[in-house]
Specification:
Blueprint (H helix, E strand, L loop, with lengths): L23 H15 L5 E3 L4 H14 L2 E8 L16 H14 L2 E12 L2 E4 L2 E4 L19 H9 L4 H7 L6 H11 L3 E2 L12 H23 L3 E2 L2 E2 L4 E7 L2 E7 L1 H12 L2 E3 L2 E7 L3 H11 L6 E7 L5 E8 L3 H23 L2 H10 L3 E3 L2 H13 L6 H11 L3 E3 H5 L11 H11 L5 E3 L14 H16 L16 H4 L28 E4 L3 E5 L6 H9 L9 E7 L2 E6 L4 H10 L7 H7 L3 E4 H9 L7 H10 L15 E4 L11
Parallel strand pairs: 1-5, 2-15, 4-17, 15-16
Antiparallel strand pairs: 2-3, 3-4, 3-5, 6-13, 7-8, 9-10, 11-12, 12-14, 13-14, 18-23, 19-21, 19-22, 20-21
Helix pairs in contact: 1-15, 2-11, 3-12, 7-9, 15-16, 21-22
Length: about 650
């Protein structure tokens, strides 16, 4: 599959500097020097074998940092050329594309770098976590399967990525939603102390059930309270004299402690919970659970009720634990809490790190935040919402401040076309005075092998350089203040990759057409497909020869081999063009022949519908055909896109002849 790239240029609020052209040879040499320097960075490689010992260190570094940079290495980013987020995508369609990729592909490396900026010095603590979604609980979580993009795997292999180590020693994880499901599946005891007392009048069946249960609990409790086998909640070790009353005959037996427990369990129906006697009460409904809990309050405080959930939801039984004193009861509560923490920590896996970042409420710095944080939300929080608005609202609860260095780069005119971090860093180094030094206090780990995760340090360095050049003073963020400095607030939480101005309202206006970005209405875009293979220039020439509607200024770009997008500069011409196609009596020349051969056209709402329905075919033309075939079925997203404006630039060319 050929790889196609957008070449983008974005307008900015302010121009920092426009500097002369740099020779390609000098620029390439400088990038090579930068890569050589990066090899000296020490980045802690974290796998399953050293994950536990790493948690305390990264927790300390996160708490003392000003910012946290993140960088993800994934198994893929798109399955077809048109699945990539494009300049003509609205916020909604861009999110749906990112959502599709996040649900399809997997994260194999997650680099985290807490860092502080003091003057021109960056102090960074980079960690690179190797992940693998291993089904350790045999529950099909975190995932049954995932997809891989060939080019991504080849790139990772060239960097020396050890796929065997990833599979066998990668850290697994569960999302917050999956953790809740796992706890129910494993039947972890739940404290019943916080249950609300029922005000409903007991029925006859309730009364019979509770009387029988009360009698059973009373007999069980009295047996153990009177028994000499209990000493402060502990059983006598080694040989024990156990008296068994059967048919008025006392049988004297000298048995081992294990046999005592077996006989006690057989005769009394009793089990053990943390070396304390307990009994299980089967229940058929949540109503019976409430009745049992209320009934147990009639006894002394030495009984501790625990609710055992069923694997498919609801309650399986109520477990009653007998303690010997108030101190023993508190000890049991601590033991239960400790068991839960140990088990929770084990099933969370790498998500412990995500929770540490979220709890710190520190600003998170990334490159291409929409792509990264749809993956983070999907893999470590909850399933992705259906639309962009719900996604941003949900994400802010976990990460209130997300800064994308792409938007800072757009403030510097020579960088508006650069989307590669090493190239952007080298460009700034050559053309601006931005003395930023990166210090990594880590000591190299023995037997660490191939070092991965350099990109996260590059993000820290680039962020510091941009802040220095733009005079944003990131170190003005106070340690006790949860908000960013005012200068950085306008760059936070922007998830549109092609937005030229932070938080710019979208309207119907079209800017002057130049080599920079213009804004057009979605209503002025028409998708055209079903034509034979040809270049965008050839298609544009054929259209100009076919109808007077194309006498006005317009543009044609190929989205993929099967589909092109026609951009009209003058409002209303797109509707005229659609009307002409529906009534081909006014069409002449090549377009008439193309229509007879099956050329079809649709407005932006059809494209939006295809994305909303998840019609991710290999070719956009096939997806649009299916979207039009289902127009008889209303869809909530069928109305005009919430963001009626999109960005367009004549440099965003996908010319197959250039590939």
């Amino acid at each position: 599959m050929l790889r196609r790239h957008f070449r983008c240029a974005a307008s900015a609020r302010k121009m920092v500097s426009f500097l002369p052209w740099v020779p390609r040879r000098l620029f390439s040499a400088e990038v090579s020097k930068t890569h050589q320097h990066h090899r000296n960075w020490t980045i802690k490689q974290v796998t399953k074998s050293n994950f536990s010992e790493t948690l305390d260190g990264i927790k300390s570094h996160i708490s003392t940092s000003d910012f946290i940079a993140v960088s993800l290495q994934k198994t893929g980013s798109f399955s077809a050329p048109w699945h990539r987020v494009s300049p003509f995508d609205t916020l909604d369609t861009a999110y749906l594309k990112a959502k599709h990729a996040a649900e399809r592909f997997q994260v194999l490396q997650f680099a985290v770098c807490p860092f502080t900026i003091t003057g021109s010095e960056v102090t960074a603590y980079p960690y690179n976590f190797h992940l693998f979604p291993r089904d350790e609980l045999k529950m099909g979580m975190p995932s049954y399967s995932f997809s891989c993009q060939t080019s991504h795997l080849i790139s990772m292999a060239r960097e020396g990525f050890d796929f065997n180590a990833c599979i066998y020693d990668g850290i697994s994880y569960l999302s917050r939603a999956q953790e809740s499901a796992a706890k129910v599946f494993m039947g972890n005891p739940i404290s019943a102390n916080n249950m609300v007392e029922s005000i409903a009048t007991p029925s006859v069946a309730d009364t019979v059930f509770i009387q029988r249960t009360r009698s059973r609990v009373k007999h069980w409790k009295n047996t153990f309270t009177d028994s000499t086998t209990m000493t402060h909640g502990k059983k006598i070790k080694d040989s024990t004299y156990f008296f068994l009353f059967s048919t008025s005959l006392w049988v004297y037996m000298s048995v081992s402690d294990a046999l005592v427990r077996s006989l006690r369990k057989l005769v009394l129906g009793s089990e053990e919970c943390h070396s304390r006697p307990c009994m299980n009460i089967d229940v058929c409904s949540e109503r019976q659970v409430q009745l049992v809990i209320e009934m147990l309050q009639e006894f002394n405080d030495d009984l501790v009720p625990l609710i055992i959930p069923a694997k498919r939801g609801g309650t399986q039984l109520v477990r009653v634990v007998l303690t010997s004193s108030e101190e023993d009861k508190e000890l049991l509560q601590r033991e239960l809490q400790n068991d839960e923490e140990v088990q929770t920590k084990r099933i969370r896996g790498f998500r412990e790190v995500i929770d540490l970042i979220s709890a710190s409420q520190k600003p998170v710095v990334s490159h291409n935040s929409l792509n990264d944080f749809t993956f983070i939300h999907s893999k470590f929080l909850t399933p992705l919402p259906t639309n962009m608005e719900e996604f941003t609202s949900s994400l802010r609860l976990a990460f209130p401040q997300v800064i994308d260095v792409n938007h800072l780069m757009k403030e510097i005119s020579p960088l508006r076309k650069v989307r590669n971090i090493p190239m952007a860093t080298s460009y700034l180094k050559n053309l601006f005075f931005a003395p930023v030094d990166v210090e990594i206090p880590f000591q190299a780990w023995a037997n660490e092998g191939k070092i991965h995760g350099h990109n996260v340090v590059r993000i820290c360095q680039l962020f510091a350089k941009l802040c220095y050049i733009l005079k944003l003073a990131p170190n003005s963020v106070e340690s006790n203040d949860k908000n960013l400095a005012e200068a950085l607030k306008s760059y936070a939480n922007i998830f549109n990759p092609y937005s030229s101005v932070p938080q710019e309202p979208i309207d119907e206006d079209i800017k002057i057409w130049t080599n920079s970005t213009i804004k057009v209405s979605c209503e002025d875009l028409v998708f055209l497909w079903g034509f034979r293979d040809m270049t965008a220039g050839t298609l544009k020439r054929l259209l100009q020869e076919s109808h007077k509607v194309f006498s006005e200024e317009f543009d044609v770009r190929l989205v993929d081999k099967s589909c092109a997008i026609v951009v009209f500069r003058q409002p209303g011409l797109s509707k005229t063009f659609m009307d002409v196609l529906n009534d081909d009596s006014d069409i002449v020349g090549p377009l008439r022949e193309m229509v007879s051969e099956g050329v079809r056209a649709a407005g932006y709402e059809t494209y939006n519908r295809a994305c909303s329905l998840g019609l991710w075919d290999a070719y956009l033309g096939d997806a649009l055909d299916k979207a039009m075939a289902g127009l008889d079925y209303p869809l909530e997203a069928d109305s005009k896109p919430k963001s009626p404006g999109t960005y367009w630039c004549n440099e965003w060319v996908i010319d197959l002849d250039e590939l």
